[in-house]
Amino acid sequence: MSTRNWLSVGLLIPVGLVLGCASSDAPVRPPLPPSKSDLVLLVSTTLCQHKADFLNKHLSATQAPKTWGSGEEWIISEDRSASHSHESYFFDEDGLLVGALFTFPRGLDMGPYPVLRDTLSRLKPSLEFYLNVAQLETKTSMESSSLLETGDEKSTTQYLVIGLRDRPILLQASFTIDPYVRLFSPYRREFLDRLRHSAEGGGGQTMESQGTEDKEPFPSLQQFARGQTAQLAYCGEKNYDIALDAYKRAIASGFTNKVWLAEARHKLGVAFLIKGQVEQAKAELLQSLALRPNVPEVLNNLGTVQVKLGDKVAGLMSFERAIVLRPNYALARYNLAETSEATNPKRALSEYETYVAIVEGIPEEADRIVHAKERIKVLKQ
Predict the structure, then answer these.
(1) At residue 100, what are phi and psi to the nearest 5 degrees?
(2) At residue 83, what are phi and psi to the nearest 5 degrees?
(3) Of 47, 146, 192, 247, whose CB count within 10 A is highest?
């Protein structure tokens, strides 16, 4: 679960120089928020399920699909829903279920769900706002609503609730793998709009001024998320062919914010590097740095590319710059140590020791810690 800089995701290479795309210096996960629930909405399907498997179970209950960017949205109406909600399932163009949205236009009383009520009471709302809930028979025309977020290591669940501290009523719940979390907030305007219509199709709430809308093109955001899903193995094995295609299309769709564009070029560069297209990787990383010059992860990855191209001097300079910007950047220190062993063993020893001090006890770094300690023994002789 990301908490929640969507651009910041870790990418590690098990041997040799280490690629860094994380916002932290080592892959330490923060404690997960409470997430227990006795309201089971994803009953007969799971995130990352293939569309063919989903349709084998639900085809008779679903309506004709709607276009969702380059993917599809499949809908199960309230009268056919086991959860008595409007169910929407979103598949990417590769046929993977990346998100689901459950809408309760008349609200779902949380009274019969004590476990979920307890979970929600332990979460701090990520957003609070007044919402017109005129169609709810038991509520006044304007009601305070709360958006709450929880999840696990790879997915996020969001709940839109009114009367949180009094009598909680659920209006919407979304589930998504983390790369797509930005596209599945119930506070998105197109999702709030789904609360306008009752099951009978009459009436409607006035919400035109409520809800977020993306400033960046939807195709760019969708393809960036697709690239992250493939590159970081959110739905099985890593697939760098899909990642390359997705990041290229995200860039071509036209990010307007240089932060998004820089990160897309950064991730495209990493994908090129792992595919062995090192010159293309270098070009993308340099373009990323031209947009955002002082990003330690990009500098670290550029250093890795430069070393692979035989320019160790430039690589060392890139690792050094990354460490100057972030002194406790363990991955860059590890790379600096490996690269400087032959020419400056004293510096290599110091960097290995600093690396071990930073990451000692972190399970994900166990193999590199062993290697670093072995090199420390050798360099001290």
Answers:
(1) -145, 145
(2) -95, 0
(3) 247
Burial group, residue 59, by CB count within 10 angstroms (0-12, 13-18, 19+): exposed
For residue 13, what pLDDT band results from cuts at 50, 70 and 90? very low
Among 152, 196, 150, 151, residue whose Cα is nearest residue 171: 196
Q: What SS3 state is found at 202?
A: coil
Are the beta carbons of 247 and 227 closer than 8 angstroms?
Answer: yes
Third-level CATH fold of 218-380? 1.25.40
Residues in contact with 256: Cβ distance below 8 Å, sequence separation at least 6, in sequence order: 215, 216, 217
Q: Which secondary-structure segment (H or E) carries 176?
A: strand 169-177
Structure tokens at 34: 């409470």
How far is residue 275's CA from residue 244's CA, in Å, rounded to a whole number? 9
Q: What percent of the chain has pLDDT over 70?
A: 87
* pLDDT for the residue 25: 44
Are the C-beta atoms of 285 and 21 separated by less than 8 Å?
no
How many other β-carbons are positioned within 10 Å of the β-carbon of residue 105? 22
Cis peptide before 321 (omega within 30 of 0): no
Q: Are strands 71-76 and 155-162 parallel, antiparallel or unpaired?
A: unpaired
* Structure-token pair, residue 328: 């406790």
pLDDT 10s digits, 225-265? 999 999 999 999 999 999 999 999 999 999 999 999 999 99
Element (H, E) at 75: strand 71-76
Q: State how far the Cα of 303 lies from the Cα of 313, in Å rounded to an integer.
A: 9
Phi/psi at 362 (nearest 5 deg)?
A: -90, 115
Identify whether the C-beta of residue 171 lies closer than 8 Å to the C-beta of residue 210. no
Please, where are the H alpha helices in the chain?
Answer: 51-58, 114-122, 189-192, 218-231, 240-253, 258-274, 278-291, 296-308, 312-325, 330-340, 345-359, 366-380
Question: How far apart, in whole angstroms, are the C-alpha atoms of residue 291 and residue 285?
Answer: 10
